[in-house]
Amino acid sequence: MTPSFIPAPLRGLPWGMLIPLTGLMLFGATVLYSAAGGHMAPYAWKHIMNFVIFLGLALAISHVPEHRFQQAAYPIYGLLVALLVLVEAVGHVSKGSQRWLNLGFMNLQPSELMKPGIVLIMALFYSTLPPSMIRTWRALIPPLLLLGLPGGLVMLQPDLGTGLSICFGAVVVVFLSGVPLWWFISGGAAAVVAAPMAFFFLLHDYQRKRVLVFLDPEADMLGSGYHITQSKIAIGSGGFWGKGLGNGSQSHLKYLPEAHTDFAFATMAEEWGMVGGLFILAVFFVVLFRWGMGVARRAPDRFSQLLAAGMTATVFFYVAINMMMVMGLAPVVGIPLPFVSHGGSSMMTNMICIGTIMAVDRWGKRAGGRLA
Amino acid sequence: MAKLITNGVLRNSFDRRSVVVGSLQSGVGLLLATRLGYIALADNEKYKTMSESNRVNLSLIPPRRGWILDRMGQPIASNRADFRVDLIPEKLIEQDKTLAELAGILHLDEIALQEIRDHLEKSRGFQPVEAGSHLSWEQFAAVSVRQPDMPGVVPQRSFSRYYPSGPCVGHLVGYVGVANAKDYEQEHNPLLITPGFKIGKDGLEKQFDAELRGVPGARRSEVTAGGRVVRDLETREDVPGKAIKLTVHAGLQEYAARRIGTESAAVVVMDCETGDLLSFVSMPSFDPNSFTDGVGRIEWKMLSDDDHVPLRNKILHGLYPPGSTVKPTVALAFLEAGLSPDAAVNCSGGLRVGNRVFHCWNHHGHGRVDMAKGIYQSCDVYFYHFAQQIGMDQIARTMRKIGYGQKFPLPYPSQSFGTVPDPAWKLKKYNKEWAIYDTVNATIGQGYVQVNPLQQAVIASRLASGKLLMPRLLHDDPRPAAGSLGVPQEHLDFIHAAMKEMVNGLGTGHAARLPIDGVQLAGKSGTAQVVGLNIGNGKGGLWRHRDHGHFICFAPFDKPKYACAVLVEHGGGSPAAMPIARDVMTYMFDQQKAWDALLELEKGWGGTPQERQAAKYRSYAAQYGVRAPQVEDSEEALAQQEQEAAKPAPQPIQSDAAPPAPEPEEASAAPAPAATPKPAAEPQT
């Protein structure tokens, strides 16, 4: 049990998750410190600040009661869709791909917020759907519409990475909601058929190129294959123990592109080696698998279950795609590594997810355990 | 069967499915850890190597090229430390922006920019293109500072080839230049595409490229992806190429080249004891200094407009009828055949053979002419008469022995060596019998006989020494003792005396008399006709219709030390050649006196060859600017022009005796060619 001299609000916090997470963030800060050539500015300080600020946001979210979540789900969803349309319109006016809105004090990226947003709306939909309807079209068509609208808008931007991320969160919720399994099997089969067609007809040239390069990075060593190749060189040359802090030639001599954002893992692996990589994997194992999925399983009701699992899946998607990308297992898509890469937007999204899971955790504890 | 679905059923489903999702997640985690291990452990060596080759850039340091020295150790071709900027076309990102920025720093004008663009267009991506050389330290520093923002721009310190006397040695040494795609195909050496490295393109520079080149140094440095050098790790010095020492006397070479002035001429001076070539001059010439940076549009226009063909090396590739310079050799043939030098003939201005009359150049006649007078007065009738007696075979034998028609082992890829005609040759070549007029032509150096200036110098040196001298150009080559010509000394003495008389006594060559006490020059002039008298008299008119002027000589006449041959192409006859020969030979004995005479002349010509070329360039640049036509492939075109220039003109079959070219006596009546202002006090006898 938690010692009683610790104030109650702190006692209730999930320290088993927070301590590894903070460790991961600080580890990320050292990577950013090195990527900036041994300086806390401009990345490392801001990274820590972002973490502190958005951890505050997460704690605030964690105190929101369940019914508030449920009340807010549709208005939030509607607002985000409206913002996505607005972004699309602004982008259309400025004749370019636009993903964010300038709010003056920060650039707001509605598609980022849609990642937790879609999970929230999906969880609400399935928790309110009468169980008897779970095997009917009513369990399928409305969620498809709910997902199709923002998903389509994001893909239009075009932002394939974020679009896939939104879909992934939603699909995991749908899967966990108990819809018939054959939907997924046939859906998967359809995807296998549709993927090549999408590749040839739907993807933009630069996206197609990324996929081709992913399949054969060495073919275009100095062009688009450069990113993947340099990233693999950075990771591979680090070996087991790494080259040591500040000794990463790949990042310091600028061979590694985006060394502080998308390829932060490669920057880390060059200097900290496989040990650093295993540490990161271990932290995510604790945070996502042990804690996130654990909270979902212990959650008091259907809504909170689906919500926690969906949020976990959203963060997982970041981690998996980013690490697969830097190690040459996925095409180059602009997805940062949570809590390690520099960048406020992704920190905010991930903290919203964490905060939401913490909220579910609290609901479960308040309810005194699992309800039958 | 419809199963009742309750919340409980759904919760069970969630539990089961969350296990599936969780396992998938840990599966991905496991996959990532495996992949990490594979890259970082199994492929560690491979990626370590790749990371090192990223980090460390091995760049070659072009070796300093071996010097080319004259016989005294003076540099004819050297290197000077240089700041330069090259462009690597395939690494240039914004060409126009980069060029504009460079133009600002290096003060490049439109013509220079156009040249760089021409080169960039033609270059294969990996071949460096020179953007500027001989930069000041400030310019170099300014480019170096901006380099990280200008990918593909390589500023560096290097050595560039320098020919102190420029065009004076153009045909002697050739020039160097950036290796072209063909060179690179032949020799896949990364050194060839190292910025700042040049290979020999022509002449000795090409012939001895392997010796001169040296061994490149190397520099290992840490570089960023953008190519900026972070720090040097280690450097291996280059090994400079070996020097090549020539027999040429650099001072004489420059003097002779400058003395030629605005004429198109060749001057070859040989040592009468060793065969050493002391000067090897063909002017006008290209300036190897400016060829080294590649031939630009303006230069190309200048070269192709010049009817004096600066690209042709007249010494080796110019073939000319020797005119009367052949007479001492013919006289030697007479002596060998047993003719007494006192045997005489009466010259009344022509010789009747059968029903034909062959004219002497002096239509008034020379009166009684013996061998000595035949040489110093250059009487044609004397030679017509006795050549009929002695026969062409004997004359041709002696001519070949003396050096006519011979090719000499010199380090140049080709020589045009002309012909020594005789009856057998004519029968073989034209399937025609030898005719009297053929002998007549040959004995006065017209018709089929052709020589190049190198042969003329060898002939002069062999006549002077009586030895089978071979011309030498490399100082350190073995020096075999020259064999004897097999000519009795009294024959030689006789010829020497007659040739001395030609210049210093009763002859026609007073213009060549040396202004030096106690040193008497022996010589023989010659005028070779280019067109028939029906087109022009050979003295004035169109430049290309004027006669060629020859002069061969040696000094001192009684103890020959130096032999010299001068050819002035379309100079209007031998009067153009004699003063040049005189001044060049004067240089051998009294340099100060020679320089005094030349500097006075150069005032009238508009300065040294370099100065004149620079002035011409300025006027061309002003006239044509960037409108000069583009050089398609300068090297190809150069080689082609040179090849064409080296091709001997076809020899038309002779159908009659050539009218003998007038000798200087008459020449004094004709107006001096405008192209050659001569000192007013030129003695003309």
Automatic annotation (TrEMBL), chain A:
The EC number(s) this enzyme carries: 2.4.99.28
Chain ranges passing through the membrane: 12-36, 48-65, 72-93, 113-129, 160-176, 181-203, 272-291, 303-327, 339-360
Keywords per UniProt: Cell inner membrane, Cell membrane, Cell shape, Cell wall biogenesis/degradation, Glycosyltransferase, Membrane, Peptidoglycan synthesis, Transferase, Transmembrane, Transmembrane helix
Gene Ontology MF terms: lipid-linked peptidoglycan transporter activity; peptidoglycan glycosyltransferase activity
Top EC class, one word: transferase
Pfam families: FTSW_RODA_SPOVE
Protein family according to the UniProt entry: Belongs to the SEDS family. MrdB/RodA subfamily.
Function as written in the Swiss-Prot or TrEMBL entry: Peptidoglycan polymerase that is essential for cell wall elongation.
Name of the protein this chain belongs to: Peptidoglycan glycosyltransferase MrdB
Upper taxonomic lineage: Bacteria, Pseudomonadati, Pseudomonadota, Alphaproteobacteria, Sphingomonadales
Gene transcribed to yield this protein: rodA
From TrEMBL, chain B:
Occurrences of domain Penicillin-binding protein dimerisation (ranges): 61-232
Keywords: Carboxypeptidase, Cell inner membrane, Cell membrane, Cell shape, Cell wall biogenesis/degradation, Hydrolase, Membrane, Peptidoglycan synthesis, Protease, Transmembrane, Transmembrane helix
Protein name as catalogued: Penicillin-binding protein 2
Membrane-spanning parts: none
Ranges of Low complexity composition bias in the record: 637-658, 667-685
GO annotation terms (biological process): cell wall organization; peptidoglycan biosynthetic process; proteolysis; regulation of cell shape
Gene3D superfamilies: DD-peptidase/beta-lactamase superfamily, Penicillin-binding protein 2a (Domain 2)
Subcellular location as annotated: Cell membrane; Membrane
Pfam families in the record: PBP_dimer (PF03717), Transpeptidase (PF00905)
Stored PANTHER family: PEPTIDOGLYCAN D,D-TRANSPEPTIDASE, PEPTIDOGLYCAN D,D-TRANSPEPTIDASE MRDA
GO cellular component: plasma membrane
Keyword Cell wall biogenesis/degradation: yes
GO MF, one annotated term: peptidoglycan L,D-transpeptidase activity
Disordered as annotated region, ranges: 628-685
Domain of life of the native organism: Bacteria
Bilayer topology annotation: Single-pass membrane protein
